[in-house]
Design a protein that fits this description.
The complex is a heterodimer of chains A (108) and B (175).
Chain A lengths: L3 E4 L3 E3 L3 E8 L21 E8 L2 E8 L8 E7 L4 E9 L4 E11 L2
Chain B lengths: L1 H19 L6 H17 L8 H12 L4 E3 L2 E4 L3 E4 L3 E7 L9 E8 L6 E7 L7 E6 L5 E9 L4 E12 L9
Parallel strand pairs in B: 1-9, 3-9
Antiparallel strand pairs in B: 2-4, 4-7, 5-6, 5-8, 8-9
The chains are: A mainly beta (108), B alpha+beta (175).
């Protein structure tokens, strides 16, 4: 289980645009780099990142080997209602991880 | 026997043509020599890097051949990059992000990494703000293109040139 860090406010006013920053520990091995034995290391990257807000997909990213190790993605969303945001990462060698964060939305 | 005598004059005729050429080379042989000189240029081994045509092709695959307009898109990246292993980039699109007018996707492409694709983002009107950031790898100094698609089907782009001093993708494992 890779370590994932998600930074976002715990509470927001309805209609506010909040920033979400998601980072996950992953080597993102490109498949072009030689290892210690001189042989090229096989590719091992995260291919896909998605974020759902109360079950509705609000953001997705398709990653390629040109994304740096420990992929960091920052994006925005409108705080519409209290609920959960689910973050999922999928990648090579059956890599799959999901994290959830609660967001409480107050009336303005 | 009749065939032999018929073949004789034909051979003579052709050698006569050759001697009439001042350098003793028929046009066919000369072009063959020229081709021999020119061939190594075409046989030069190309490095396994994404070249501008492959970037153009990758952008075409993404846009479906749509016309790209300049503007509405801000591609934020340092012009001089010390370390190509993790380069922060931010893409900002000038869009109200309402249900009727929003950014549907953003793609980043490069010229000289091993692969032309970098990342593709899919956005919805619920983003509220068309701004995404990530960290990318750059193999060398090159040109990067960011492309965004709007909900009305128009495509926008911005190109940036960057100088990279320490390359990613090429060095081996750090011990």
């Amino acid at each position: 289980m890779a370590r994932a860090l998600i930074h976002m406010p715990q509470a927001a006013r309805r209609g506010d645009v909040i920033e979400i920053r998601a980072l996950i520990g992953h080597p993102m091995e490109t498949g072009y780099r030689p290892g210690a034995d001189g042989r090229v290391l096989p590719r091992d990257i995260i291919r896909k990142f998605t974020c759902s807000y109360n079950g509705e997909r609000i953001f997705a990213a398709e990653l390629h080997p040109a994304i740096a190790a420990n992929p960091y993605i920052a994006f925005h969303t409108v705080a519409t209602e209290s609920g959960t945001l689910e973050f999922t990462w999928e990648g090579d060698n059956g890599f799959a991880q999901s994290e959830t964060k609660k967001l409480s939305v107050n009336e303005a | 026997m009749a065939a032999d005598t018929a073949g004789g004059p034909a051979v003579k005729g052709s050698s006569g043509q050759k001697t009439s050429n001042p350098r003793g080379l028929s046009p066919g042989r000369r072009s063959l020599l020229l081709a021999g000189v020119a061939t190594p240029v075409f046989l030069m081994v190309r490095p396994a890097l994404a070249t501008p045509p492959s970037m153009t092709q990758a952008i075409k695959d993404f846009t479906g051949g749509a016309r790209l307009q300049s503007g509405r898109l801000t591609f934020e990246i340092a012009e001089l990059i010390d370390n190509g292993n993790a380069v922060p980039v931010t893409i900002r699109v000038d869009s109200p992000m309402t249900d009727g007018d929003y950014v549907t996707s953003i793609g980043i492409f490069n010229e000289r990494n091993p692969l032309p694709d970098v990342v593709r983002f899919s956005l919805t009107p619920r983003a509220g703000k068309a701004e995404v950031s990530t960290r990318i790898r750059l193999a060398t100094s090159q040109k990067l293109v960011a492309v965004a698609c709007m909900s009305d089907g128009s495509w926008w782009q911005q190109t940036v040139d960057v100088v990279v001093t320490l390359a990613a993708c090429i060095e081996g494992e750090v011990n």
